[in-house]
């Protein structure tokens, strides 16, 4: 039976970029797939600058955001990566079969390493830990954004290599996990930059109040060619239009495109309509988050149940892996 695995960095509260780009899709997938595992990847967070107390807090905040956004512990498994020690155990094993050159070729590594004076080994082997994350549960389907497709190719490569060397010829032990591309295109930052990212300060937090959201939405960058209200716009180049596609019903999206391209309304009116539709979706999420913060045991219990289930699966995998590799 298909098993889905996906992970998210413990960046604290979700922003709408990662909500639309990943988590909203997860919420739908948990209804379609009886075995979905979602992981807060706190080991991965160690490869960047971080403060230990803040990391713990951000992991908790991420759990609250995910549960508030609709991840249901009765349908899906949610846990923090570092509570299942076999992730790093399997990553070490995969380190021993992964060629250095393949890791050095990874675009994300080259990009990040080029911006750092001193590069830690963990940044290089990040995709190996990702392969371990997925293959520890022998997951065959991984919902990802396009920027993760190369890493997933490496996971397939690792699975192939391990199977070739250690599994029986007619019974590959690890599946080669396939990407399930997230349907929503990447949401740009409010400043028009290609990516919405906390470090760039161009996000809308999923749990921000209506007033805070409007204060950010109102001045957000639109079609730069639309200088005056009388200039017809091109909705496809406007981030606000793409947010409409994510939050507003189809007839509203069609109306937005029409009114924009014929200069029948101004950008503020367009944003007001978007804001209303965002609020319709986000108010219940904020309400659930407030309940979860009032009752912290709910998130703790969900994470603990997830950890217990994942440890059991991980223990089974490691027993099989170690046995095949001649380890005690
Ligand atoms: Fe963007 Fe809407 Fe303005 Fe068109 S009318 S440029 S879609 S904000």
UniProtKB/TrEMBL annotation:
Cell location: Cytoplasm
Positions occupied by motif 'HIGH' region: 10-18
Protein's UniProt keywords contain Zinc-finger: no
Organism: Roseisolibacter agri
Subunit structure: Homodimer.
InterPro entries the record matches: aa-tRNA-synth_I_CS, aa-tRNA-synth_Ic, Rossmann-like_a/b/a_fold, Trp-tRNA-ligase, Trp-tRNA-ligase_bac-type, Trp-tRNA_synthetase
Descriptive protein name: Tryptophan--tRNA ligase
Record keywords, A-Z: Aminoacyl-tRNA synthetase, ATP-binding, Cytoplasm, Ligase, Nucleotide-binding, Protein biosynthesis
Record EC number: 6.1.1.2
Motif placement: 'KMSKS' region: 195-199
């Amino acid at each position: 039976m298909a098993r889905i695995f996906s992970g998210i960095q413990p960046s604290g509260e979700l922003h709408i970029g990662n909500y639309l780009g990943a988590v909203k899709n997860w919420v739908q997938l948990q209804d379609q797939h009886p075995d979905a595992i979602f992981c807060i990847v706190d080991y991965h967070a160690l490869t960047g600058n971080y403060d230990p107390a803040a990391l713990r807090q951000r992991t908790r905040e991420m759990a609250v955001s995910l549960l508030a956004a609709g991840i249901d512990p009765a349908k899906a498994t949610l846990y923090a990566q570092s509570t299942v020690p076999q992730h790093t155990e399997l990553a070490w094993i995969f380190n021993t079969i992964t060629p250095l050159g393949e890791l050095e070729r990874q675009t994300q590594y080259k990009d990040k390493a080029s911006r750092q004076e001193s590069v830690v080994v963990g940044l290089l082997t990040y995709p190996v830990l990702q392969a371990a994350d997925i293959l520890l549960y022998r997951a065959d389907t991984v919902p990802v954004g396009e920027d993760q497709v190369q890493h997933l190719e490496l996971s397939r490569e690792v699975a192939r290599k391990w199977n070739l060397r250690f599994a029986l010829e007619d019974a590959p032990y690890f599946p080669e996990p396939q990407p399930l591309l997230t349907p929503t295109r990447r949401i740009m930052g409010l400043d028009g930059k290609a990516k919405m990212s906390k470090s760039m300060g161009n996000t809308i937090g999923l749990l921000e109040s209506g007033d805070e959201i409007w204060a950010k939405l109102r001045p957000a960058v639109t079609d730069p060619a639309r200088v005056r209200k009388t200039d017809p716009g091109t909705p496809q180049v406007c981030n606000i239009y793409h947010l409409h596609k994510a939050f507003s019903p189809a007839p509203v999206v069609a109306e937005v495109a029409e009114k924009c391209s014929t200069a029948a309304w101004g950008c503020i009116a367009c944003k007001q309509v978007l804001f209303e539709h965002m609020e319709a979706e986000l108010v219940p999420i904020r309400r659930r988050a407030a309940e979860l913060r009032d009752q912290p045991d709910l998130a703790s219990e969900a994470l603990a149940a997830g950890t217990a289930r994942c440890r059991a699966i991980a223990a089974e995998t490691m027993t099989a892996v170690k046995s095949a590799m001649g380890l005690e």
